[in-house]
Sequence to fold (217 residues):
Amino acid sequence: MTDEQGGTPSTDAATGAAASGAPTPAPAPKRSRRRTWTAVGIVAAVIVVAGAGFWVWHEQPSFCNAICHSPMDYYVETYDAGDPHLGITAHAADGVTCLKCHEAELTTQVSEAMAWASDNYPMTEDGTKLATGKEFATEQFCAKSGCHHELGESYDEITANLWGFAGNDEKYNPHASHQDLALECGDCHGIHEANVLTCNECHDLNMPEGWEAPSEQ
Fold:
């Protein structure tokens, strides 16, 4: 009921509402700042833990073909295969993972991602692996200081320790070709392929365990 002149609730109506026992809305409680910061801290901790876990996974060979099945399946499979004919087997046994050689530089990863997304990367005729493998296997890439500690800390030290390799006569050294051939590491050393003793294109030398002669290719 309203007053005829003012159009406002009458005193009697207001009094009646109060008398009826209708609840009066309580003011909303203020949110605790402590709870807010706790929630922020939990979210931040989850992000940090997830990021650390991702980084650990990123360092493992299994990461390489988690998305890029082609062309990376072959490389991860051979890493885990334990095949004595492959150079990667010795690396895996020493705990050398992919990124210890193939450093994760941002520019390289971006270009690789673009090549993969556009399906623009050269493959071998059988379609199993990249056709650019030997381009990696240079002296600069393979003979980094501290990598081949069993034979030496540098390419020169490695070469000096290879005279009479694999029980051959002391005059033979595969790193000191008497024909002064312009060979790169990848011409003999296969990481995801067989190791091949190129010397045996002409000679009949003893080969290190797991190695093959060119005629076996």
Observations:
- The CA atoms of residues 90 and 104 lie 22 Å apart.
- Residues 1-11, 13-19 have pLDDT under 50 and may be disordered.
- The two ends are 105 Å apart (CA to CA).
- The chain has two domains: 42-124, 132-217.
